[in-house]
Amino acid sequence: MKLLKLSLIIGLLTGAFFSFGSDLEDDLDNIESQMESVVQKAQTQYGQDENKESARPTQSLKETVRMALGPFRKMSDEELHRHVEDSLKRSGTGALIKKYPQTIDVVSELLKDPEALPSLSGVVERRDRLWFFVGINIGIIFFGIALRKLTSKDGDGLVARARKGLIRFFFLNVLRIATFVYFFYDELMPAWYIVKDTLKL
Q: Residue ranges of the domains in the chain?
């Protein structure tokens, strides 16, 4: 159950974070200038070769995310909570935060933490494991087709088919989630600890 909770919550919060980031741009003009300055410094530090013929940014995605989140860590808790709440409302998740107000706390804590979201973004950099995960997912799709044929019977009624379909759906998705957590456990854990501590799970 912990693996299931972890993956579902991380998936929700990741989507909320990216929609939050796009909505917040109009409200953070002063922060944007700071971020541009940070990126320019990063390009100078990481992008120049020995002959200084070019300046190409070569820092990892994790470092880029970490630098981008820097301005959020300078905001007060009250200011950050207000921005998160306003941005989530504008992104169409107002009903969600009304039903689960802890979402604001979780997103705020994730934005302030220097490691959680950078570590989560590290999933994209694990190309070898991503390919393994994609391959296993393709296998799970074929397994699901075979499982459907094995469990279906001509005499099954509507209720029986719906029940079996629901069981297959949960089984296959738990299998996918467990596989994802297995491959990217280290990248997921920092964000999971914040979610767990904030929600007191």
A: 2-123+187-199, 127-183
